[in-house]
Amino acid sequence: MSFPRHIRKVALAIEQAEGAGARVRRSIGTPGLRNFSPFLMLDHFSIKPGAGFPDHPHRGQETVTYLLEGSVDHEDFAGNAGTIGPGDLQFMTAGKGIMHAEMPHQNADGSANVGLQLWVDLPRELKSCEPRYRDLRAAEIPTVDVDDDKVHIKVISGQSHGIDSVKDLAYTPVWILDMTIQPGGKVSQPLPANWNAFAYVLEGDVNFSNGEQEPQKVEQYNNVVFGREGEGVQAAVDASATKPGRFVLVAGTPLDQPIVQYGPFVVNSKDEVYKALMDYQTHSNGFERADGWRSEIGKSMTA
Asked: What's the pLDDT tens digit per position in 9-46?
């Protein structure tokens, strides 16, 4: 790769409370990194028994939930329900309106359920689409090993080293690659031209190339935002490191539209925010089934 992308910003994801007793490390969606189109929010969540995200609405965006440890149940007002486990993903399109709950399993050892949730904006013309879910199981995700097996890549969405993901799972084009680099390993990953891209470090320290400057070491829980110019991203882990470096590399096509977000509603104008609130309160225009609905999985927290 002749021209790696430069690093625009590195942001530490500070832990904060969210939902009902859950803890999240939020990077995208904070004052310092807001509306990085098409990305709206990135949470690295930890949900212990007794905590969760009981019944709540959405409109106008997609959510991608990638579970790293434990299991999480989901249920919505359209009768959809299921469970994702370690390594599984769920892509949820809120469209014109959905109300759902996401609740953790009660692990016998009391351990937390850990994962990532990414909010992706929907193009204006799809914000009123019908809600839908697509699950991607860990066993379905293709993988590839490079640099003499020192780099392991899960190709969740997109392409890497000749391997294509199994299917398109989101309306807004997004690539998601889970990369683990052993000490002494390195990888070059091309990305689609002019897409926005970031890398969130899950474990260890990772050295990311910074255009024509010296590589920059990025520690765990930091989000690296890249500029649009350049062919892709280069990453490496020091040969002297005591553990691997793991990060999720995400890229998506920017949307040329205004973003107006009010909590779980993501629309294109203030008037549409008022309409979303009215529709939700009056159970209309996509929220009809919210009238009197309560999830089974959330009842323990809403009683």
From this structure: 999 999 988 877 888 999 999 988 988 999 999 999 99
Closest listed residue to residue 191, CA positions, set 151, 150, 235, 223: 235
Task: Please give the pLDDT value at position 302.
Answer: 52
DSSP character for 179? E
| Number of structural domains found in the chain | 1
pLDDT in tens, 61-107: 999 999 999 999 999 999 989 999 999 999 999 999 999 999 988 88
In a domain, 280, yes or no: no
- Rounded CA-CA distance 73/71 in Å is 7
Does residue 120 form part of some domain? Answer: yes
152 within some domain: yes
The Cα–Cα gap between 284 and 291 comes to: 9
Residue given tokens 């299921």 in the structure block: 82
Tell me what the pLDDT averaged over the chain comes to. Answer: 93
Residue 44, by phi and psi: left (phi above 0), alpha (psi -120 to 50) or beta? beta
Q: How far is CA 290 from CA 107, 121, 131, 188, 198, in A?
A: 30, 23, 13, 47, 35
Encoded amino acid at 283, one letter: H
The domain that holds 218 is classified in CATH as 2.60.120.10
